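User: I'm writing a tutorial on reading structure tokens. Could you give me a worked example: one chain, its sequence, then its tokens, then a sentence or two explaining what the tokens reveal?
Assistant: Sure. Here is the example chain.
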Amino acid sequence: MLAEEMSRRCTKDMSDEKILVVERAKLLEKHFEGFMPIEGNENLLKIINEHGQFVPRSLVENDSSLKQIIPYIVFINNNKVFLMKRIAGEKRLHNLYTIGVGGHVNDLDGSLEAGMKREIDEEVEAEIKKIAPHGFINLEATPVDKVHFGVLYIAEADEIKIKEEKSLEDFGMVDIEEAKKLNLEGWSRVAADSL
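And here are its predicted structure tokens:
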């Protein structure tokens, strides 16, 4: 089993967070870059659920044979999208705008859906009316892109605001077409173009 093999090779602290990964070869049998809609590609969710394993993060950060699964949630209301700007945190994302929140799924979550719900609870306060998977994001341009795979969720919500997050500045709801004109981070650009 992949998780057991990776754990044996682990030379770092065993308390290292275990995150959800899927072997690239299984996940991307049908290779794509950019956005892939959920319609007709529901099998990717099945692959994640059936073949996903929780592996210490330190072992997979630079291993492009594995894809780290990231739920990425975009909040919409009518023809508007919730917009934020990154003002601290990850250096490569400074001063870029984002329309999504997300992060790694860990073994305490136990599943993609539970990880998605935790990310929402950690990042924003929102009255969600409906949430559903919209598609998938796969980019390959950078070493970081090569090890991550996004499951894009669209949440229809009212009264959205960022929780006590010092790395994000809240711009509220803006027209989707206006958001597309901004300097969006990579996944947000892909997500915005899919709306």
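What the tokens reveal: The chain is about 30% helix and 40% strand. Confidence is low (pLDDT under 50) at residues 1-15.
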